[in-house]
């Protein structure tokens, strides 16, 4: 059977810095996979390699049976099946909310104006910002902007949605609105690959959680196992730091020393 | 300052203790201001007495000479100045956009061509370009710049402004956050489509202020058209003023022409400021 996403031996370097050091994993149709891990672990790069915003240095990325790393692939056509939501929203500031959701439908899918507007309004209603159609993105709160960005991606009828830390740039009280939209999407059966720091979301919504550190997958499995009962010391240390920010990880120093060595300061890394 | 003030107190790491100085900075500044005002008023009064106002008025603001300039200063000269500069601006902007995209292209020869063009024509005086255009028909027998005198004038201004606009637009294009193009590409837009629909419109908003300056500079450079040997219905403001000043042996027409330039450039600056503010609100 073909997977929705299949990644084989993925490597990515920026200059001499190797960010991904051989990643293999798959996402199946209808699954929600959450990727967690410390900053600098390569999880965002992994996500960006799935729609080829970053060109992998080596390895194979196959989405919906189409190999994206094939040099002759029509990457624009392939990306139409992938919705992407960014940490910093990346709405088009010179267009109204409605135009933001319509532009790609009109220019890429060649939908008529009325059809595009109908679909745009449907999706904006679905994410709860239907009343903001004529506003410009900078006039909206971060949470509203991110929901518009989700509606913009959904309007293209994607087979798979990629989320790159969608709530990391939001004020804490706005995170819930975005997460509830994503939860609803998951319940509707959307295939989703989510890079996130929201452990409660991952635990509740994900079918599978992938923990990355140092450019490799350290551990993956059902959320109850990876988050609830992690097998690897690095996963345990990471989770303890995320769930309890005051924890400094002293009792795990010996095991985390090499993992922390190459990274910029994360809270508590002074111990390692 | 003096021995006394040095000895006034135990000098800490930051000098004498404040408050011991004989005059506070505020008082010192007030006295200095007062002196400046007195000097300024004295200078203005002196100039007003010394100047031969009547002679100046006779030569620079003679009403009956000024009247001779109308209505041609608007209907012919200003019209032509605007034709030359708007023409040069429009074609220069298009050329500049092309050069900017070439300079940022991943195709190396495009980058080379754009770089050479920009470096050469940004470094040459506009006057030199006009003199060269004059020799074009000699160099290429049978060749004529389309549009006659207007065409030649617009061509000269286009060549110069394209080089400047290319750099301005490149800065604008590079100032658009990378995430914008990424968002457009991940919606399935091609590189060209994402440039046209997303990046270029935002870049144009960013370059409004430097582009206004560019247009004002072009408006003034259009005076160089006079070196093409224009006459009659093709004269622009400077040539018009100069000709009339020669025939009347009076500088008044030049003043009239100068005011006419300002009539265009000052509202233009104001308009650009408003446009910029409006765009800033939308961001």
TrEMBL record, chain A:
InterPro entries per UniProt: AAA+_ATPase, ABC_ATPase_HisP-typ, ABC_transporter-like_ATP-bd, ABC_transporter-like_CS, MetN_ABC_transporter-like, P-loop_NTPase
Domain of life of the native organism: Bacteria
Biased segments, Acidic residues type: 249-258
Domain ABC transporter: 5-239
Keywords assigned by UniProt, alphabetized: Amino-acid transport, ATP-binding, Cell membrane, Membrane, Nucleotide-binding, Transport
Catalyzed reactions per annotation: a polar amino acid(out) + ATP + H2O = a polar amino acid(in) + ADP + phosphate + H(+)
Keyword Manganese: no
Membrane topology: Peripheral membrane protein
Protein name: ABC-type polar-amino-acid transporter
Pfam family, one: ABC_tran
Species assigned in the record: Sphaerisporangium album
Listed EC numbers: 7.4.2.1
Chief location of this protein within or outside the cell: membrane
Family: Belongs to the ABC transporter superfamily.
PROSITE patterns for the chain: ABC_TRANSPORTER_1, ABC_TRANSPORTER_2
Region ranges (Disordered): 243-272
TrEMBL record, chain B:
Region of interest (Disordered), ranges: 1-25
UniProt xrefs under Gene3D superfamilies: MetI-like
Membrane topology: Multi-pass membrane protein
Compartment(s) where it occurs, according to its Swiss-Prot or TrEMBL record: Cell membrane
GO cellular component: ATP-binding cassette (ABC) transporter complex
GO MF annotations in UniProt: transmembrane transporter activity
PROSITE patterns: ABC_TM1 (PS50928)
Ranges annotated as spanning the membrane: 34-53, 82-102, 123-143, 254-273
Key words of the record: Amino-acid transport, Cell membrane, Membrane, Transmembrane, Transmembrane helix, Transport
One Pfam assignment: BPD_transp_1
Stored CDD domains: TM_PBP2
Any single biological process term in GO: amino acid transport
Domain ABC transmembrane type-1 stretches: 78-272
PANTHER family in alphabetical order: GLUTAMINE TRANSPORT SYSTEM PERMEASE PROTEIN GLNP (PTHR30614:SF20), MEMBRANE COMPONENT OF AMINO ACID ABC TRANSPORTER (PTHR30614)
Family: Belongs to the binding-protein-dependent transport system permease family. HisMQ subfamily.
Protein name as it appears in the record: Amino acid ABC transporter permease
Origin species: Sphaerisporangium album
């Amino acid at each position: 059977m073909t997977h929705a996403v299949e990644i084989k031996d993925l490597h990515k370097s920026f200059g001499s810095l190797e960010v991904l050091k051989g990643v293999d994993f798959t996402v199946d149709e209808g699954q929600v996979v959450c990727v967690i891990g410390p900053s600098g672990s390569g999880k965002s790069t992994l996500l960006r390699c799935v729609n080829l915003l970053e060109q992998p240095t080596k390895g194979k990325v196959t989405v919906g049976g189409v190999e994206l790393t094939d040099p002759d692939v029509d990457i624009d056509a392939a990306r139409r099946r992938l919705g992407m939501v960014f940490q910093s929203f990346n709405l088009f500031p010179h267009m109204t909310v409605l135009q933001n959701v319509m532009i790609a439908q009109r220019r890429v899918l060649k939908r008529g104006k009325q059809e595009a507007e109908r679909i745009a309004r449907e999706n904006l209603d679905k994410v709860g910002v239907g009343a903001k159609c004529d506003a410009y993105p900078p006039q909206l709160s971060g949470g509203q902007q991110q929901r518009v960005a989700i509606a913009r991606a959904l309007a293209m009828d994607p087979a798979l949605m990629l989320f790159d830390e969608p709530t990391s740039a939001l004020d804490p009280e706005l995170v819930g609105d975005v997460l509830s939209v994503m939860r609803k999407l998951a319940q509707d059966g959307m295939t989703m690959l989510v890079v996130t720091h929201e452990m409660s979301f991952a635990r509740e919504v994900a079918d599978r959680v992938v923990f990355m550190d140092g450019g490799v997958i350290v551990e993956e499995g059902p959320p109850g196992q990876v988050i609830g009962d992690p097998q690897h010391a690095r996963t345990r240390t990471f989770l303890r730091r995320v769930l309890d920010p005051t924890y400094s990880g002293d009792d795990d120093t010996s095991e985390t020393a090499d993992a922390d060595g190459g990274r910029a300061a994360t809270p508590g890394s002074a111990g390692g | 300052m003096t021995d006394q003030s040095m000895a006034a107190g135990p000098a800490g790491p930051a000098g004498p203790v404040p408050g011991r100085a004989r005059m506070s900075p505020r008082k010192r500044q007030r006295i200095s201001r007062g002196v400046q005002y007195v000097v300024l008023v004295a200078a203005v009064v002196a100039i007003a007495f010394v100047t031969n106002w009547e002679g100046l008025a006779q030569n620079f603001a003679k009403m009956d000479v000024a009247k001779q300039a109308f209505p041609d200063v608007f209907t012919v000269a200003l019209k032509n100045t605007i034709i030359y500069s708007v023409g040069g601006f429009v074609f220069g902007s298009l050329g500049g956009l092309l050069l900017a995209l070439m300079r940022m292209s991943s195709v190396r020869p495009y980058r080379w061509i754009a770089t050479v063009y920009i470096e050469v024509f940004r470094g040459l005086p506009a006057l030199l370009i006009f003199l060269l255009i004059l020799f074009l028909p000699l160099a290429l027998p049978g060749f004529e710049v389309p549009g006659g005198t207007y065409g030649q004038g617009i061509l000269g201004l286009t060549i110069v402004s394209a080089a400047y606009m290319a750099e301005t637009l490149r800065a604008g294009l590079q100032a658009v956050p990378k995430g914008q193009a990424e968002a457009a590409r991940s919606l399935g837009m091609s590189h060209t489509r994402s440039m046209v629909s997303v990046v270029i419109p935002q870049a144009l908003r960013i370059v409004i202020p430097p582009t206004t300056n560019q247009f004002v500079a072009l408006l003034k450079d259009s005076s160089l058209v006079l070196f093409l040997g224009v006459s009659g219905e093709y004269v622009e403001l400077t040539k018009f003023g100069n000709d009339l000043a020669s025939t009347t042996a009076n500088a008044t027409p030049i003043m009239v022409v100068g005011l006419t330039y300002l009539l265009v450039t000052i509202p233009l600056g104001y308009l650009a400021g408003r446009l910029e503010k409006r765009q800033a609100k939308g961001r």
